[in-house]
Give the backbone structure.
Amino acid sequence: MKKIRTIIFVALLIGILFGISGVINHVYLKKSNMVTGREENLAGLQKEEDNTIDLLVLGDSESYTSISTMMLWKEDGISSYIGAQSGQQIQETYYMLKQALQTQKPKLVMLETHVLFRDNAGMDAYRSVMEENAMYHFSVFRYHNIWKRLLSSNIGDDRQFFKGFRVRDSVAPYDGGDYMQETTVKKQMTGFVKNYLQQIIDICKENDIPILFYSAPSPVNYNYQKHNTLIEYTENAGIPYVDLNMMTSELGIDWTKDTLDHGDHLNIYGAQKVTKYMRKYLEENYNLPDHRGQQKYKDWDVLEDQYEKRLLTLKV
Amino acid sequence: MAYHTTLFLFVFLPLALICYHFAPQKWRGYVLIGFSYLFFWMNSKELLAYLIGTTLLTHHIGIWLDGLTIKEANAEAEEKKQIKKQRKRVLLLGIVILLGVLISMKYQNFIGLNASRVAEHFSIRYSFDPVAIVLPLGISFYTLQAIGYMVDVYWKKIEADYSLEKTALFLSFFPQIMEGPICRYSDTADTLYKKSPLKLENLQHGSLRIVWGLFKKIVIADRLAVVVKTVFDSYADYHGIIIVVAALAYTIQLYMEFSGAIDMVIGTGVMFGVKLPENFRQPFFAENASGFWRRWHITLGVWFKEYIFYPVSVSKIVKKWNRYGRKNVGKYWTKIVTSAVALFPVWLCNGIWHGPRWSYIFYGMYYFTLIMIGILLEPIRKKVLQTLHINPKQLWYRALQFVKLMVIVITGELFFRADSLRIGVRMFRSIFQDFQPSILFDGNLLNLGIDNLDFMVILVGCMIVLLVDLMKEKKVALTEKLEHWRLPIRWSVYYGLILAVIIFGAYGEGYQVIDLIYAGF
């Protein structure tokens, strides 16, 4: 009897956690700005109407500072979303993709590659996997602080969040010169990263989603050793790869103006140059539909207006 | 990997429980040792050799002492004297080696640097280069346990254990290796070696105690940690009442964290059917500083009492003084001197035990001074109470005592937490600069890293803990009482506690993972 009672107790507890997670996912995350900070992009995915995102960009801060979703929308009507967090790790990227696929059917996944070179290994990595897994199934663990937003009177309105892209206009120049000096040396990825990367690729394959690797220009985070590794990996895996670090002149990147933190990340000026190039690349290689003018995407135009107004204040 | 981490709670502990459950009874001890060494290795890697070395030494000294005891019993009078001396030498050998390792690892830099300062003062050529030393997990805890065991065998309080398995388990048992409690052999041996099968009832009680510990640690202590870190890391930017707030926050943080961790430790022990000694007994309800220390970190206090205070109190020199003093200076002064002689090493060791810092030594001496003042003034206090017909059990008197105790404890913790004695003194002095209580209400507190909702959670959390402590103080057996409540109410309490930890816990976005404070000692 005691055993049965214990089983019922545990089952009920799981039910309660599942219930609270459901309420968070389906009620609170649908509202504006319930989650801010690092989890904002992940929570924002829940707000998107089902099956509206065609291009899903994954990665860490290099991705949400390099691809302007609003520019893609304005110029080509591509509905894109950036599923990224600062310092995102490969296992977080994996769960970000799984989360996205619950409600979306993207036609292309773009993976910013900096996430592949984090020193992910050992006990901490496995602890993080366990926690990510728990948070994926029970979002109450991830968004448990949402009660604060509910009780707080100043929830505020939409800020500088444009489908995962963040407008940053600060300038802190990079003056370290050429950072892509040719070598045959390779920077190794850890076995843990390779394992999760393979799982990401497998999920994309299972869902018939092509995957594209790209490396955002960043003197702080990229070098030829990483380039060599990525070239070898993508050639073996048959995955297209664009290393924008190899074409900064072609892109017109000016390191005295286009970086916000001495070559670590691009600012809005750099992001516009990268997006301009990627637009062309996507047009030539993928057939992503133009959704402009469609009823389902009306709010994208509203957001794009806000984006333009924001750019006007920056005189971009 | 500490007791409050997901890795411990959801992987390590369940795995240990499963392996223990399915192992045959005679192998269960080895399963626990295996998991204890794995726990140690996960935290300290190859430094596990120190624990194994300590185990082998303690085991061997115990057997050696026991052998000599048997020999002594059958020996002639003259030979007995020799064996007694030999026993003392064997014990000293064990203690010197264990303390030698502890001192060389934990205090080497402190001693060397201070020696070089003294040398410099006297213009003696000596310089010391600090060495980077990583301490083995729980060395301050298991060393005391090992010494206690050897001394108990020497005093013939217990018989030495001839089973290496048992000595190894006694010194390494993973729930208590990191933060104590510092167990005496006679406290834990019975249940530890019983290798009882897992019982559902124990698992339930243990889980409840663990969740209660998590509540104290994650909901209250880790929130307060933000305030404490903000002020103590930038102490020069703060003064007046904010320093008092930070010291109070640290006092509560330390209590919630340490007692919470001990709840998790004891709860884990209960799951395996092992009864570990309590380390806290509502310390803030004590009447004075001395009483506070009988309720705070109890097992450390008991260890010092057993192995330092008593031996000094009954030492030849103190006995001689007692005889001389009673005849020549009177009972009162004899007691004062005896207490001072016996308490001084206790409080010096208490301070030093926490780490190689002058601020910890000051902390020990601070309590030594306060307790000595208490002993000195005791007759006057009694006389005043008698003359003014004051009943010390009256509420206003108790309230006054509580305020006095809080001032003492909070001041002590201010020095304890400060990065150095110099900083502690500076912070203490800055309390009296521009002391404005109005700051508490003008929103300044919200600049200390947490918002008003966090403060609300801390307040409610503290009230819940206070309520539970009050009931414990009134000897209400809460767990048993809870079991007699109707199922829906009982389960609501359990679910409420679990959900409070999950929802109001200071973890994830916006908070940092806070290591267990006492694991650093």
